[in-house]
Design goal:
Chain A contains twelve helices and no strands. Chain A is mainly α and 281 residues long. Chain A has one domain: MetI-like fold, CATH 1.10.3720.10. In chain A, 36% of the residues are buried. Chain B folds into two domains: 194 residues, Rossmann fold; 121 residues, CBS-domain (Roll). Chain B is elongated, with a radius of gyration of 28 Å. At the A-B interface, α9 and α10 of A face α4, β6 and α5 of B. Chain B: The complex is probably composed of two ATP-binding proteins, two transmembrane proteins and a solute-binding protein.
C-alpha cells in the first residue's frame, strides 16, 4: 500500500548537488582551503609559540580586571591552565583555542548582520527562522561530510562545520534583542528624525547589546562543543586527544584531555559573561 | 497662517481601509464599521488649525484616538486619508527625506513614559536630536546644557535616566525636545505618568516656560483639569472624532453635546464643592467634664487616633492624640489641658475643596470646620477624595 512509488532519490540528489557545488565553486573553495588553512595554522602556531607562563599570567590579569577585580577567576585560570601545561597538552590547548576563537569571530561577523536583517524584515524572519531550526537540529556529524568534500581535512572543515552549528544563537538573539527594544524608544528615535542606520547604531544595537552578548556566549560555547566532533575530520587540538583515547579505550588520557576542554570552556564562558555584565552597567 | 493645519484626517487600522472610509463617509459608527469590515477607526475625519504660540490641547478618554492623532501629526503613524500641513507643507505626502527634515527642525515630541535612552547620560539624551542632525560635539553640548538648565537640571548632566525620579526624567524629555529649538512641541500625555503634585508643578513650569518661549504646543491629555489649566484651546475627542473645539470657557459654558456636558459637570462639582459639603459630624470630648481616660476610651470606641476637644458650648479648644492620652493615663495626669494640642488645621464652611486639598495634605489629623469659633464638622481624607469623584452622599450624616 505504502510502496506505491520507488524510493525518492533524495540522497543521490544531495550527493550530485554537493558534487556540482564542489566542481563549480572549486575556484572559491581551494583558495579558502589553502590560504585560510595556512592562516589558521599560523595562528595556532604563533599562539603555541608564546611562552606559556606569559599566556597564563596575561589571562589571569585580564580575568582580574574583567570580573571587576575579583580574585576567583584569576586563580582558577592560573591553576587550570597550569594543569593543562603540566599534562603536556599546551599545544593542543592553543590549537583548540584558535579554532574556537576564529570560528566564533566568524559566527559573530556573519550572525549579527543576519540577525539585524531578520529584525527589520518580516519576510527575512519567515525565511531565516526555519533555516536556523534546520541548522541547529540536524546532527552535527552530518555537517562533517560536506565539510570534508569542500575543504579536505584539518582545521578549515572544522571551522566550516562549527560555523553552521554555532551561528544560529547569535542570529536569533540579535533578532530578539532588537525586536525587544521598547516601541516608545523606537518612536522617540523616529520622532527626532533618525535615518535607519542612526536608529540602528545609536538606539537599537546599544539597547540590544546584552541580549546579543548572551547569544554570542552561546555561540562560543557551541563552537567549543564542536571541537571534539571536528576532530573526527582531522581538526587538531584537545578534541583529537579525546578521540584517539576513545579509539584506543584509554580512559586516563581521554579524561585528562576532557578536563582540559572543561577548563577552557569555563574560562571562555566567564570571560564572555563578564563582558556582558560590564556593558549592562 | 496657522502653523499646523489638519484637514479631514483619518486613520483606519486594518486591511479593509477603503471600505471603512466609505462607511465613515456614510456616517456609520465605529462599532458598525468594525463589525462590517473588521477595521478599527483610529481617527475620523478630523480638521483643526493650530495657531502660532498657542497651547492646543487634545483631550479625550483612553481609546478616543488622541494618541493616534498626535502620531499622525508627525507621521509616526501613516494617515489613511487627509492632510497635515506644517507651515504650508503637506506632511502626509512628502518623501522620507523631507519628513526627516521636518521632524528634525520643526517638531519635537515628548512621550508619556519619557522614552529616554537608558544607555545615554542625561546630557547625551538631551543632545540626541542635535547629534542626529550632525551638529558638532561642542555646539550641541552647549545647546543641550542650556536646555537642561532651562528645565532646572543643570546639575544632573552626568547622571543616567534610571538615577532620576519620574518628574526629573520627564524634564529631561522636555529638555531633549527643546534642545532642537522646534517650532512645534508635541506632548503625548507628557505628565500623565507623574504623581498629582509633581504633575501640577510640571504644568506650572510648562506655562512659565511658554511665557518666554512662545512655542506652538500640542498637548494630549485624558485629564480635563489639566486641559483646562494649560490649554489656550481644547479639542475634545470621542471615538476618533473631534466633538468640540474651543477655549476652556467656551467648553465649560457651551458644551456642544451631552458627552461634553458630562465632563463639564465633573469639573463644576470639584470647583463648587466646599468644606460644608464634605465635612462630617465630629467626635468630641468636653474639656470641662472629661479627662484623658474618657478621651482614650472614646477614641478606642470610634477607632480614632486623635479626638477634638471643645468646651461646653462647642467652642474648639484643640485636640488630643491617643498616644498622649495613654501616656497621661499612665502618669496619672487628670487635666486634659496638659496634653492638649492647639495647632489645629481649621477651615470655614465656605473653604473650597482646592484649598482643603493643600491643607489636608500636610495635616496629621482631620481638618476642623469652624463657624465663629464653634466646631461644626471635621473633614477626613476619604471625604475629600469621595467628593472629588462626585459621590454627593458623603455628607448625609453631617450634623
Amino acid at each position: 500500500m505504502l510502496d506505491f512509488m520507488d524510493t525518492i532519490p533524495v540522497g543521490p540528489a544531495v550527493k550530485s548537488a554537493t558534487e556540482w557545488i564542489q566542481d563549480t565553486f572549486a575556484f572559491l573553495f581551494d583558495p579558502i582551503k589553502n590560504q585560510f588553512g595556512d592562516f589558521m595554522d599560523w595562528t595556532a602556531e604563533k599562539l603555541a609559540e608564546l611562552p606559556p607562563i606569559l599566556v597564563i599570567l596575561l589571562v589571569a590579569v585580564l580575568a582580574f580586571f574583567i570580573t571587576g577585580k575579583r580574585i576567583g577567576l584569576p586563580i582558577f585560570s592560573i591553576v587550570g591552565l597550569w594543569f593543562v601545561y603540566n599534562q603536556g597538552l599546551w599545544e593542543q590547548l592553543m590549537q583548540t583555542f584558535s579554532l574556537v576563537l576564529i570560528s566564533s569571530l566568524l559566527s559573530v561577523i556573519i550572525g549579527v548582520p543576519f540577525g539585524i536583517l531578520m529584525s527589520k524584515s518580516k519576510t527575512a524572519e519567515t525565511i531565516i527562522t526555519p533555516i536556523l531550526d534546520f541548522m541547529q537540529t540536524m546532527p552535527a556529524f552530518v555537517y562533517l561530510i560536506p565539510a570534508v568534500v569542500f575543504f579536505g581535512i584539518g582545521m578549515v572543515p572544522g571551522i566550516f562545520a562549527s560555523l553552521i552549528f554555532a551561528t544560529p544563537p547569535t542570529v536569533r538573539f540579535t533578532n530578539l534583542g532588537i525586536r525587544q527594544v521598547s516601541k516608545e524608544l523606537v518612536e522617540a528615535a523616529d520622532a527626532f528624525g533618525t535615518t535607519g542606520s542612526q536608529k540602528l547604531f545609536k538606539v537599537e544595537l546599544p539597547m540590544a547589546k546584552s541580549t546579543i552578548m548572551a547569544g554570542i556566549n552561546q555561540t562560543v560555547m557551541l563552537s567549543l562543543s564542536m571541537v571534539v566532533i571536528a576532530s573526527m575530520i582531522g581538526a587538531p587540538g584537545l578534541g583529537r586527544e579525546v578521540l584517539s583515547s576513545l579509539q584506543r579505550s584509554q580512559i586516563g588520557p581521554g579524561f585528562v584531555a576532557g578536563i582540559g576542554i572543561v577548563i577552557l570552556a569555563i574560562i571562555i564562558d566567564r570571560f564572555t559573561q563578564s563582558l556582558n555584565k560590564k556593558q549592562v552597567n | 497662517m496657522p502653523v499646523i493645519s489638519v484637514k479631514d484626517l483619518s486613520k483606519v487600522f486594518g486591511k479593509n481601509t477603503k471600505e471603512a472610509l466609505k462607511l465613515l463617509e456614510q456616517g456609520k459608527s465605529k462599532e458598525e464599521i468594525l463589525k462590517q469590515t473588521g477595521s478599527t477607526v483610529g481617527v475620523n475625519r478630523s480638521s483643526f488649525d493650530v495657531e502660532e504660540g498657542e497651547i492646543f490641547v487634545i483631550m479625550g478618554l483612553s481609546g478616543s484616538g488622541k494618541s493616534t492623532l498626535v502620531r499622525l501629526l508627525n507621521r509616526l503613524i501613516e494617515p489613511t486619508e487627509g492632510s497635515v500641513l506644517v507651515d504650508g507643507e503637506n506632511l502626509s505626502t512628502m518623501n522620507k527625506e523631507d519628513l526627516r527634515r521636518v521632524r528634525r527642525e520643526k517638531m519635537s515630541m515628548v512621550f508619556q513614559k519619557f522614552a529616554l535612552f537608558p544607555h545615554r547620560s542625561i546630557m547625551e539624551n538631551a543632545e540626541f536630536g542635535l547629534e542626529i542632525q550632525g551638529m558638532d560635539k561642542e555646539k550641541r553640548s552647549k545647546k543641550a546644557r542650556e536646555s537642561l538648565e532651562l528645565v532646572g537640571l543643570g546639575e544632573y548632566i552626568h547622571q543616567y535616566p534610571s538615577q532620576l525620579s519620574g518628574g526629573m526624567q520627564q524634564r529631561v524629555g522636555l529638555a531633549r525636545a527643546l534642545a532642537n529649538d522646534p517650532e512645534v512641541l508635541l506632548m503625548d500625555e507628557a505628565f500623565s505618568a507623574l504623581d498629582p503634585l509633581i504633575r501640577k508643578d510640571m504644568q506650572d513650569e510648562l506655562l512659565d516656560l511658554q511665557e518666554t518661549m512662545k512655542k506652538t504646543i500640542i498637548f494630549i491629555t485624558h485629564d480635563l483639569d489639566e486641559a483646562l489649566r494649560i490649554g489656550d484651546r481644547i479639542a475634545l475627542m470621542k471615538d476618533g472624532s473631534i466633538v468640540q473645539i474651543g477655549t476652556p470657557e467656551e467648553i465649560l459654558v457651551n458644551p456642544a453635546n451631552d458627552y461634553v456636558e458630562r465632563f463639564v459637570e465633573d469639573v463644576d462639582r470639584s470647583k463648587v464643592l466646599t468644606a460644608e459639603h464634605i465635612m462630617k459630624r465630629p467626635e468630641t470630648i468636653n474639656i470641662e467634664k472629661h479627662g484623658p481616660r474618657v478621651a482614650l476610651e472614646r477614641m478606642k470606641e470610634e477607632g480614632l487616633s486623635s479626638i477634638y476637644v471643645t468646651d461646653g458650648k462647642r467652642n474648639l479648644k484643640g485636640y488630643v492624640t491617643a498616644d498622649d492620652a495613654s501616656d497621661a493615663r499612665k502618669n496619672e495626669v487628670r487635666d486634659l489641658n496638659q496634653i492638649l494640642k492647639t495647632d489645629v488645621p481649621t477651615v470655614s464652611r465656605e473653604t473650597s475643596m482646592h484649598e482643603i486639598f493643600e491643607i489636608i495634605h500636610n495635616s496629621p489629623v482631620p481638618i476642623a470646620v469652624v463657624d465663629e469659633g464653634k466646631l461644626v464638622g471635621i473633614i477626613v481624607r476619604g471625604a475629600v477624595i469621595a467628593g472629588l469623584v462626585g459621590e454627593s452622599e458623603v455628607n448625609e450624616d453631617h450634623a
